[in-house]
Amino acid sequence: MTLEPVVQIRQVRKQYHGLRPLRLMELTVGAGERVALSGLDAGAAEVFVNLVTGASVPDEGDVVVFGQSTASITDGDAWLASLDRFGIMTPRAVLLDSATLLQNLAMPATLDIEPVKPDVAARVTALAQDVGIDAQWLEHPIAALDAGIQALAHFARAIALDPALLILEHPTAGLPPGQAKAFGETVARVTAARSLTTLIVSQDADFSSAAATRRLALDPATGEVKPVRRRFWSL
Question: Is the per-residue pLDDT at 234 higher than 60?
Answer without folding.
Answer: no
